[in-house]
């Protein structure tokens, strides 16, 4: 039987249902498994694509209730997708904290499904506000704004892992070289945090799902590709 091509009504129907894949080649020393939620495969290559649906949700909520629920999009989509695709075996969620919507929404849903699931946030070492530090400059775009996000319930978090800009950049490069995943700097930060957690002896055999928010191609002019750009600029031709 021939496969039928399902034509979507419009681009909004492509939002969500991003795949999860195991990390296999940068997990040396890990005693837990790490699966990456590839938000970079949204139509516009970013987790922010899900926020397109916020407009619809805002209108619907305004009509039905007159209020907006923080993190609702990730509660209704990202969380259920992770639960479904892991077959309910997910032990922990790891995600960078920008606005806090991903951990607030997806984290809340997963903890409702299983109270034993851990939720870990990720922030820059240089701006570790959630760990009681002071705001500071860093190179991890998309997280570490230096303020406490309004939508974030800190009681939802089991721990906030600190990752340096250098760690985030180097891990993003390793993901491209060893896993074939071209991701951004904040994805590198999330992966670095997940690897730290997956190396803890008490986490042996557990499944960590880490959210990769965006594709690396939008960082071509950033520090992420500085070394490659310098090599290209210094190339000589006979």
Automatic annotation (TrEMBL):
Keywords: Amino-acid biosynthesis, Cysteine biosynthesis, Pyridoxal phosphate, Transferase
Pfam families assigned to the protein according to its UniProt record, in alphabetical order: PALP
Enzyme class of the recorded protein, top EC level: transferase
GO MF term list: cysteine synthase activity
Domain Tryptophan synthase beta chain-like PALP intervals: 75-212
Cofactor list: pyridoxal 5'-phosphate
EC annotation from Swiss-Prot or TrEMBL: 2.5.1.47
Protein family per UniProt: Belongs to the cysteine synthase/cystathionine beta-synthase family.
Name used for this protein in its record: cysteine synthase
Gene responsible for this protein: LOC108980581
